[in-house]
């Protein structure tokens, strides 16, 4: 009678490759379903983590000058709070300006909606299609949109308390971890962590820089064309610049629609063309080179991550999509020597020894 295989031979048999893939996919579905159910708790945590990652390098020059650890940590918290305060202030101001503008253009909105409905009907479209399209410009619909934006802002304000608390705790923990010889238990893990943190910082620095340039140019363009509340659309252009791939379209739609209302199709076309020249030049031709150097993500994965994370944790997921995708890759793909194919499909991230690696002491 033949003995059953034992030892190393049995270990090599293991599960079939297809079975392992199916188990991995099933585990991922369960994990992301859990994130979806806990998104109201995890979204503020993700926001706070990103803000602390951005603000943390402030401590290094302070400590080199002899500042005590607690003082450097306090400055990190202050910088993080300033970032949050500026973003919250911009969003509150833009929302208030948009809501205040609506009553002034109610008649123009109704006239434009009726004109669009007539045009669609003359082209042979059904009444339902023309009614659905024209209802988008109905003042009541826009007021409802504004109300939903206000509700979302209220929900964000409720979560803002948790963000502020998380920032304090994370900044203190980052200072403590920074004193350890290895942050994540080994040189390779520290290298992966360092690449992740530095990549997130570079990504947001690049996007903030190009977003500010785009916002100024778009705002000046709209002001010159006489589009109402151009500063609001400039703020929108800045915020949507943090949404990969589709941010330009999201920032274009509102001012283009408003241009249609106040100036008709010629003005709307001018806005679309001018926006396209400015934003395509900066966001499509120039910015991706800098973003690619920062995060090394493929364009397909970048676009998919926007849709996926917006579905999993809500609208804030669109802005946090790149850091969250980088985190998944750093935790699950980069440490695995057998995941070379996945690494290349994701954008061929830098490996140990690349110029992207920073000192482990800065990994926090």
Automatic annotation (TrEMBL):
Query: Pfam family example for this protein?
Result: AI-2E_transport
Q: Which InterPro entries match?
A: AI-2E-like (IPR002549)
Give the keywords, sorted: Cell membrane, Membrane, Transmembrane, Transmembrane helix, Transport
Q: Where is this region: Disordered?
A: 345-364
Question: Where does the protein end up?
Answer: Cell membrane
Transmembrane as a keyword of this entry, yes or no, is yes
Membrane-spanning parts: 21-37, 43-62, 74-100, 152-172, 204-225, 231-253, 265-286, 306-328
UniProt key word Transmembrane: yes
Q: How does it sit in the membrane?
A: Multi-pass membrane protein
GO CC aspect terms: plasma membrane
The Swiss-Prot or TrEMBL record describes its family as follows: Belongs to the autoinducer-2 exporter (AI-2E) (TC 2.A.86) family.
Q: What is this protein called?
A: AI-2E family transporter
């Amino acid at each position: 009678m033949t003995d059953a295989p034992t030892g190393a031979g049995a270990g090599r048999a293991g599960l079939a490759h297809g079975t392992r893939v199916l188990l991995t996919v099933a585990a991922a579905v369960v994990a992301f379903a859990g994130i979806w159910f806990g998104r109201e708790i995890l979204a503020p945590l993700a926001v706070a983590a990103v803000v602390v990652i951005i603000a943390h390098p402030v401590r290094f020059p302070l400590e080199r000058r002899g500042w005590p650890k607690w003082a450097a940590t306090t400055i990190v918290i202050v910088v993080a709070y300033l970032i949050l305060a500026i973003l919250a202030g911009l969003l509150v101001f833009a929302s208030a300006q948009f809501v205040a503008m609506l009553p002034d253009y109610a008649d123009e909105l109704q006239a434009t909606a009726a004109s669009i409905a007539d045009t669609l009907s003359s082209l042979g479209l059904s009444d339902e299609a023309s009614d659905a399209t024209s209802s988008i410009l109905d003042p009541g619909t826009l007021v409802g949109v504004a109300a939903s934006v206000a509700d979302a802002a209220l929900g964000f304000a409720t979560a803002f308390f948790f963000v502020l608390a998380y920032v304090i705790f994370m900044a203190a923990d980052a200072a403590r971890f920074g004193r350890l010889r290895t942050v994540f238990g080994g040189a390779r893990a520290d290298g992966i962590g360092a690449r992740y943190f530095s990549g997130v910082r570079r990504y947001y620095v690049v996007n903030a820089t190009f977003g500010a340039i785009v916002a100024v140019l778009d705002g000046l363009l709209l002001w010159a064309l006489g589009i109402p509340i151009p500063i609001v659309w400039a703020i929108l252009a800045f915020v949507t610049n943090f949404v990969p791939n589709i941010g330009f379209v999201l920032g274009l739609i509102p001012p283009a629609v408003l241009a249609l209302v106040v100036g008709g199709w010629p003005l709307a076309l001018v806005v679309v063309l001018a926006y396209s020249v400015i934003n395509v030049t900066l966001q499509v031709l120039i910015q991706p080179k800098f973003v690619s150097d920062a995060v090394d993500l493929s364009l397909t994965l970048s676009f998919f991550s926007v849709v996926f994370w917006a579905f999993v944790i809500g609208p804030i997921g669109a802005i946090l999509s790149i850091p969250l995708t980088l985190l998944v890759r750093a935790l699950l793909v980069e440490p695995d020597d057998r995941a070379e194919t996945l690494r290349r499909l994701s954008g061929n991230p830098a490996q140990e020894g690349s110029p992207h690696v920073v000192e482990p002491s800065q990994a926090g």
